[in-house]
Structure to design on (229 residues):
């Protein structure tokens, strides 16, 4: 089955600087890669996603890149702010074919600290 | 914005007791999931449910676990005989389709004592 690796596990960034979180996946059939943000004690919330027919997607200060050949994807947060402090999870979804593997698999998470 | 609703928010139960965790997914969503998160760890897949049947389950989802959609709106997770290691945050999620983002509920914190 799919396996998602995420690095780093902890990341501290000065406010205003950029943060990059990287993930790799194992199953080349995966075609959907969402990123979730989880604030302390709260639910994971979808912040951005990318499909395998696209190499990059941007939404204001957040961008995601996908390299299908290398099977890795990254989250980029620019001009970081205190409210960006949270745990970020990457995830990968296996293509929904006859075997109906209809789930997403999460990475282990990156705890992002924005330093004042 | 539509939400996934979970009840209760916190449940404490004695080891060996049965618990039922309840979820109301978003009304036009077709896929339903249960995930769990042990404190400080990653979100782990338990089970997916589509067209009134389980479509996939993980190795965590053993015979002690079951899911139901009894009335077309609620989606429940039952743990028959709870163990200490079942203590975790349980998240229900729903989606329009497998390659759409999930909307998670706010979770039920289950504490087994």
């Amino acid at each position: 089955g799919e396996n998602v690796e995420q690095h780093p596990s902890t990341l501290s960034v000065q406010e205003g600087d950029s943060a990059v979180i990287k993930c790799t996946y194992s199953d080349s059939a995966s075609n959907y890669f969402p990123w979730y943000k989880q604030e302390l004690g709260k639910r994971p919330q979808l912040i951005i996603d990318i499909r395998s027919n696209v190499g990059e997607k941007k939404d204001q200060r957040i961008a995601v890149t996908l390299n299908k050949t290398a099977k890795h994807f990254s989250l980029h947060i620019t001009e970081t702010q205190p409210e960006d402090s949270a745990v970020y999870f990457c995830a990968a979804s296996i293509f929904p074919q006859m075997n109906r593997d209809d789930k997403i698999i999460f990475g282990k998470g990156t705890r992002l600290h924005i330093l004042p | 914005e539509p939400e996934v609703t979970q009840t209760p928010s916190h449940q404490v139960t004695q080891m060996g007791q049965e618990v039922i965790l309840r979820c109301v997914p978003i009304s036009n969503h077709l896929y339903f999931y249960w995930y769990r998160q042990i404190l400080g760890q990653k979100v782990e897949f338990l089970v997916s449910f589509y067209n009134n049947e389980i479509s996939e389950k993980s190795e965590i989802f053993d015979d002690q676990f079951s899911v139901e959609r009894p009335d077309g709106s609620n989606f429940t997770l039952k743990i028959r005989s709870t163990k200490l290691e079942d203590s975790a945050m349980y998240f229900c999620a729903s989606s329009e389709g497998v390659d759409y983002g999930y909307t998670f509920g706010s979770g039920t914190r289950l504490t087994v004592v």
